[in-house]
Amino acid sequence: MTDAHALIDKEVKSNDVVLFMKGTPQFPMCGFSGQVVQILDYVGVPFKGVNVLEDDNLRQGIKTYSNWPTIPQLYVKGEFVGGCDIVREMFQSGELQSHLSGKGISVKQPARA
Question: For the whole prediction, is pTM greater than 0.85?
Answer without folding.
Answer: yes
